[in-house]
């Protein structure tokens, strides 16, 4: 793999019928963070879990931010392209189909950026506590791509208007968006897990 590659973990599929998952951690996480979540959401799926390459006070992230909720959008674009290149490399190396991203917080934001900037990199996405990643997004063609967006009603970081705007933006690009607002904050709840399991089961059945 090239210099642009990411430190990552890979777990091969035990169930060939499940789409592979690209696991994208939140600020301060690493490549081990979401492996357990991935196994719970889709037991038997191949798991590809990279570590963000940007450090903020020593904490890994997938792109720079200028303040909480204020992104360095040039960096968002550059890092999304790097991540897309990594996914393409990993697909060749491990023999994977296009993965479904499962991103939390910062990881969900880079997944949303990847959908908009390199739509072919992903087969779909589960976006947990995501925000609009780009104020001037490109016209992406997401025709029919399934996206599950789960927001927290009491999330202190992501305003309800922002997550609603993201749902609208992805829908307008052609994605099949399911957006649910849960009685939760920024942290994940049992409801997130249940909804993600059900959704991925349906997506897997459609793809079969």
Automatic annotation (TrEMBL):
InterPro entries assigned: AB_hydrolase_fold (IPR029058), LYPA1-2/EST-like (IPR050565), PLipase/COase/thioEstase (IPR003140)
Source organism superkingdom: Bacteria
One Pfam family recorded for the sequence: Abhydrolase_2
Keywords carried by this UniProt record: Hydrolase
Coiled-coil annotated residue ranges, if any: none
Keyword Hydrolase appears in the UniProt entry: yes
Domain Phospholipase/carboxylesterase/thioesterase stretches: 17-201
Keyword Hydrolase appears in the UniProt entry: yes
GO molecular function, one term: hydrolase activity
Family: Belongs to the AB hydrolase superfamily. AB hydrolase 2 family.
Protein name according to UniProt: Alpha/beta hydrolase
Source species of the chain: Bradyrhizobium diversitatis
């Amino acid at each position: 793999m090239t210099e642009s590659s990411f430190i990552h973990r890979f777990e091969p599929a035990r169930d060939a019928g499940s789409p592979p998952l690209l696991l994208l951690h939140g600020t301060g996480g690493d490549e081990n963070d979401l492996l357990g979540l991935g196994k719970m959401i889709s037991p038997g799926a191949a798991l590809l879990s990279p570590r963000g390459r940007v450090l903020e006070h020593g904490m890994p992230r997938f792109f720079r931010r200028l303040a909480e909720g204020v992104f360095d959008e040039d960096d968002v674009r550059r890092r999304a392209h790097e991540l897309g290149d990594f996914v393409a490399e990993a697909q060749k190396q491990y023999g994977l189909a296009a993965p479904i991203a499962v991103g939390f917080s910062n990881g969900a934001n880079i997944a949303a950026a990847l959908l908009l900037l390199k739509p072919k990199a992903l087969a779909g996405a589960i976006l947990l506590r995501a925000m609009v990643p780009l104020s001037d997004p490109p016209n992406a063609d997401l025709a029919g791509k399934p996206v599950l967006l789960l927001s927290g009603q009491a999330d202190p970081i992501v305003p309800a208007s922002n997550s609603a705007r993201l749902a609208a933006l992805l829908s307008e690009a052609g994605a099949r968006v399911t957006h649910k607002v849960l009685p939760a904050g920024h942290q994940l709840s049992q409801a997130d897990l249940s909804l993600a399991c059900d959704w991925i089961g349906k997506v897997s059945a459609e793809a079969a």
